[in-house]
Structures are given as structure tokens and as C-alpha cells.
From TrEMBL:
This is Stage 0 sporulation protein A homolog. Residues 126-224 form the OmpR/PhoB-type domain. Keywords: DNA-binding, Phosphoprotein, Transcription, Transcription regulation, Two-component regulatory system. Residues 126-224 bind DNA. InterPro entries: CheY-like_superfamily, OmpR/PhoB-type_DNA-bd, Sig_transdc_resp-reg_receiver, WalR-like, WH-like_DNA-bd_sf. The modification 4-aspartylphosphate is found at residue 53. GO terms for biological process: regulation of DNA-templated transcription. It comes from Ruminococcus albus SY3. Pfam families: Response_reg, Trans_reg_C. May play the central regulatory role in sporulation. It may be an element of the effector pathway responsible for the activation of sporulation genes in response to nutritional stress. Spo0A may act in concert with spo0H (a sigma factor) to control the expression of some genes that are critical to the sporulation process.
């Protein structure tokens, strides 16, 4: 089952950009274009996250966050042109999990989403991640490829888990490094190349096929899941 994200944004161009970004990354996305519409949507459907603007018609973002918090713990990330520190702090006090300032970087939005979802436990709700003949049991850290068990290092397991969580996504080296190593990535660092190469070799040895491909100038993704 896909992770479901509600995008609440009255600017239809920005909403479309976010929807396309999320769907390419393997999420299910449902849009709402004003506060009232969002309120009705969130009352009748369940989501793993709400991605929302503050300046919404009919019902502003602050009121919407308060409603969400009255009814549960659904993670909320605010994306807003309001850059005042006081606004950001107040929104976080209301219960938002993160705050991104417009104009935003698409890669940063994806990383922030993944961090908040991981913290909320949304990913761990899927104990077995599968793509083709790859099957990763995340509770036992056990990988099978075409029925054969394959031993991976801790970092290789974390990298593969990211690829399996979003099979269609192209991960940049910076995203992979900063998510797995939790440190700032430097361009000349060869760590990612080495670990991805080792992971790719182990998967190919088990199945005779390539499962990870290089997208030149961008990064890596699972092979065979292009849009």
C-alpha cells in the first residue's frame, strides 16, 4: 500500500509541481485547494502526511493545523512564503512537524518528507519491501534475491531500503549520503560510489542481473522502474 499524502495549496501550479514530485517518488497524492476543502477531505479520509500552505482561502493554515491536532497525530509539513521566525515558531508550537520556506528546492522537500515519515513510523508499517525479485524484511534485516538470501552490510541495507521504499525515485548522492550517514555530503566524497558499487555487485552475483542503475549527472535508482 502506498503512503498517502494530502497536498493543501491554493496555487494550482505549485500544487501540480508537488503532486508530480510525490507521484514520481512513489507516493499517492490527493489535492485540496482551500482550507474548507482540506478540512472536509481530512475528516473523511486518512493520510500519512499533510503538506500544506498557511495562506489558504476560507480557512487558514493555522486553524487547519489546530483541527488536525484535535483529531490525531498525522504529520504536517508547512510550505509557506511566510519567512518570519515568529511565524515559523508559532506554527511548530501549534503542532506542525516541519516548516519549509518558499521558494523551495524539490530535493529538499523530498528529504524533509522522508525524515518526518520515518520519524512517524509510516515506513516501518511495511515490514517487507519488494520490487521484482528483491524482497527485504526490514524487521529482520534479511534480503532475498530470487529466493536466495544475500548478506549485506548495515549501510548497504539502509541504501537498498531507500531504493525499495521509492522504486521510481532517482536519488542524488547527497540525498543518499545525508540520509544514511546523517552527515553533510561533500562533492568529492567517494563513499556513496563505493557502497552503491558493492551493493550492485552483490545483487548481480545473486541474480545475474543489474538491479541498480546510474542516472548520469543525477544519481541512482532501481533499474526497470522508470516513469
Amino acid at each position: 500500500m502506498k503512503i498517502r499524502i494530502a497536498v493543501v495549496e491554493d496555487d494550482r501550479e505549485i500544487s501540480s509541481i508537488l503532486k508530480e514530485l510525490l507521484e514520481i517518488s512513489g507516493y499517492e497524492c490527493v489535492q485540496a485547494f482551500d482550507g474548507d476543502e482540506a478540512s472536509k477531505l481530512l475528516s473523511r479520509e486518512s493520510f500519512d502526511m499533510v503538506l500544506m500552505d498557511l495562506m489558504l482561502p476560507y480557512k487558514n493554515g493555522e486553524r487547519l493545523i489546530a483541527e488536525i491536532r484535535e483529531n490525531g497525530e498525522t504529520p504536517v509539513i508547512v510550505i509557506s512564503a511566510k519567512s518570519m521566525m515568529e511565524t515559523k515558531l508559532e506554527v511548530l508550537r501549534l503542532g506542525a512537524d516541519d516548516y519549509i520556506i518558499k521558494p523551495f528546492d524539490l530535493d529538499e522537500v523530498l528529504v524533509r518528507i522522508e525524515v518526518v515519515l520515518r520519524r512517524s513510523g509510516a515506513f516501518s508499517a511495511k515490514p517487507v519491501l519488494e520490487a521484482g525479485e528483491l524482497s527485504l524484511n526490514t524487521e529482520e534485516n534479511r534480503l532475498t534475491v530470487g529466493g536466495k538470501q544475500v548478506q549485506l552490510t548495515a549501510k548497504e541495507l539502509m541504501l537498498l531500503k531507500l531504493f525499495l521504499e521509492h522504486p521510481k525515485k532517482v536519488y542524488t548522492k547527497a540525498e543518499l549520503y545525508e540520509t544514511v550517514w546523517n552527515e553533510q555530503y561533500f562533492y568529492e566524497d567517494n563513499t556513496i560510489n563505493v557502497h552503491v558499487s558493492n551493493l550492485r555487485s552483490k545483487l548481480k552475483k545473486a541474480s545475474g542481473k543489474d538491479h541498480i542503475e546510474t542516472v548520469w549527472g543525477i544519481g541512482y535508482r532501481l533499474k526497470g522502474y522508470e516513469q
